[in-house]
Structure formats: structure tokens, C-alpha cells
Amino acid sequence: MKKVELALGTRSYQIHIGINNLSRLGPEMRKLGLRGKVLIVTNTKVEPLYAESLIDTLKETGFSVHKAVLPDGENYKNLDNVAFIYDCAFNAGLDRQSSIIALGGGVVGDMAGFAAATYMRGINFIQVPTTLLAQVDASIGGKVAVNHPQGKNMIGAFYQPRMVFMDIATLLTLSSGEIRSGFAEIIKYGVISNHSLYSYLEEHPFLENIDNLEYWMDVVEKSCLIKAQVVSKDEREQGLRAILNFGHTIGHGLEAATSYQKYSHGEAVAIGMVGAACIAREMGLISSGEEERIKNLIGKTGLPVSYSDISWDDLWFYIQRDKKAQDGNINFILPTSIGSVILSPVDSELMRKVLEQELVK
Ligand code: NAD
Ligand code: GLY
């Protein structure tokens, strides 16, 4: 078992990374002084796969265990389903000493976290992420949210978990498409801050390692270390944390312009990273050789490097609406080399030219 510390003073917590370790969750929660009632929030797909192991360990360590099983999918990430979690919590008699455990991917984690942040003004929250994307990104750092018709993740909070506890073996039941989507975020970590991680990914393609749990332990740990360091320096995204949005400005625009139907989050971020790299090259910030390396690894991974059937006007509309835009200014995270990025405003005409010439299929 590996442990990564996310340092936030009295709210610091450990990220546990292991293989077939779910039976250790109860004792680890005990070590944190947790007791009493627990509500496991999961969904209809993950529950039959992993809930039983968690229920056993929690019961063995003296917790009283309850479940809230949500429907599966991003479409259900809304306040109605948070209300369902509150109902389950009240019916089970959860009090301020109780805990909510999120067992699932980022959708379950974001919703369970929002419920934990608001039920009785906040109760203990534990993340047990079961997708690659949630293990390297969504479960870490305390962003919890639900969607609103006005936009994705528009209703939310910063609410840190007491612990993140992941079993890398849960990746074995995940589809290769979902693994690929999570892998885009790992590529992102390489570009924003770790050249050696990036080279390692180039030399060890994920498709050759898809069932290699030691490989995943390694790259997940490296990714968690980067995210933990960034969040511990800038929990509320006043500055540095924005680097985690590399690829996301265009990515979120593509997702929104296609009503979240055409691209997975990782695919949209992959196109966004290629777009940001092309813009950076056009602005003279990165060499064309390094830009090519970014495009090549993304392509070799089987992630898209271009898009089609989306007009500039639509894309621009959604990019401007992104909640990271400030007073209509679009600040981009742009790579200056592999392992280093800067925040810079980008002229919309330059962006249009680069995207239309280089990214539209
Ligand atoms: P997801 O939660 O929808 O999971 C993807 C699919 O995999 C679902 O069908 C799920 O039921 C299934 N699944 C989960 N674990 C499985 C397993 N071990 N085996 C088989 N199937 C499994 O999607 P995701 O990619 O994990 O997360 C995306 C969500 O995360 C989005 O809502 C996004 O906004 C959010 N997110 C949040 C943050 C954050 O910082 N809070 C960061 C990135 C993304
Ligand atoms: N996923 C971006 C962040 O946590 O800030």
C-alpha cells in the first residue's frame, strides 16, 4: 500500500493506493476516530461489483452500514439525486458524527461529496474512487458539485474528504474506453509538471499495460502526488490550481457544444490539450518539436487529436460561458515545454485560426 499526503493543515488527509485492499477501509476509518453510522453512496453498476467488500469490512469494525444506490450516469448528477442521498441519510438516522462514503467514479464522488458537505452542515466524507479518472483527479482536492441546466458542475462546494482510499484492482472491471479517458488526465500531469512522467508514458504505452496493476499503481501514485502538491498550495484555485485546467478550456467547450454526448471528458480534454499546444506554438511559447510530442502521445493513446461538426461560433459561445472565464477574458494554460505551463490570455482570432486550420477534421 502506498500513501500520498495532501497537506492542508488540520484538514490534511491521506490518499491510500493499494491492490485488493478494500477490506482495510474499516480499520483505516477507525484510525481516524470515525465511528457510528456510514452511508455508502454508489450506483447500480458499481454496487454489485464492490459494495459487498466494503460492507463486510465496515461491519467487522463496528460501523452500522446503510446504502444509497443511484442510477448510473452523468445525466443523474443533479440536485434531485442529492435529495435522494439526503433522504437515505435521514432514514438511516445519520448524525454529525456519521460518514458518507462515495464508492464509484467521479459522478458518484462529486454527488456524494456535495451531499456530505451540506447534510447537517457537513459530515465526514470518504472517497473510494473506482475509475482511473476519479483515482487520479476527481476524488482528490475537494471539488464537489452537481450539474444545473445552466451548466456542468455549477452548484458545488470545496469540501475535503477525510481520506481517499483506492483499490487499483477495481480498474480491471473498467472498460478500456474509460481507462483511456482517465489516461488523458495522466498525460495532463506530465505536461503541466513532470517531464520524466511524460517520457515514461511515451515509453510505456497504456495499451500494453492495461492489466498490469503495478504499472497503474506507479502512474496513479505519481499523478496523485502532483495533484496533492498543487491543491495543498492553492486549495481554492486562486492561482496555481488553474494549471490543472490544461486542455479543459477547449475541452469543456467541446463537451458543452455537443451536449455531453459526443466526447467523453478525457477525449474532450485530449483535443483541448492538442489545441492549447498548437496555440502555444503559434504564440512562440513552445517549440514545434515539443508540440508534436504532445500530439503524438495523445494520438498513440487512441485519444482524438481533432474534432468535427462543431462551428467556431458554437464552440466560442461555450468557451466564454465556462465558469473559469473572468469578465469575458479567456485565460489559457499553455505549455512552454513538456513539464511546464503558463497562464496567458489568448486572442480569440488567433485561437479561431489555429483551431480551424489544425484541429477541425
Ligand atoms: P463516471 O463516474 O460516470 O464513471 C464512468 C463509468 O464507469 C460509469 O458507468 C460508472 O458506473 C462505471 N464504473 C465506475 N467504476 C467502475 C469499475 N471499477 N468497473 C466498471 N465500471 C465502473 O465517470 P468518471 O469519468 O469517473 O467521472 C466523471 C465525472 O467526474 C464528471 O461528472 C466530472 O465532472 C467529474 N470530475 C470531477 C472532478 C473534481 O475535481 N471533483 C475532476 C474531474 C472530473
Ligand atoms: N480537476 C481540476 C481540479 O481539481 O482543480
Low-confidence stretches: none
The CATH class name of the largest domain reads Mainly Alpha
Q: In total, how many beta strands?
A: 11
Bound molecules: nicotinamide-adenine-dinucleotide, glycine
Question: What is the mean predicted local confidence, pLDDT?
Answer: 96
Tell me the radius of gyration. Answer: 20 Å
Shape: globular
Distance between the termini: 45 Å
CATH architecture title of the largest domain: Up-down Bundle
Q: Give the helix level as a range of percent.
A: 40-55%
Strands of the widest sheet, in order across it, are 1-2-9-6-5-3-4
Oligomer: single chain
Strand content: 15-25%
User: Helix/strand/pairing class, anyone?
Assistant: alpha/beta
Main pleated sheet: 7 strands, mixed
What's the SSE pattern? Answer: EEHEHEHEHEHEEEHHHHHHHEEH
Number of helices: 13
- Integer count of domains: 2
Q: Which fold name fills CATH's third level, the topology of the largest domain? A: Dehydroquinate synthase-like, alpha domain
Question: Can you say what the CATH homologous superfamily of the largest domain is?
Answer: Dehydroquinate synthase-like - alpha domain
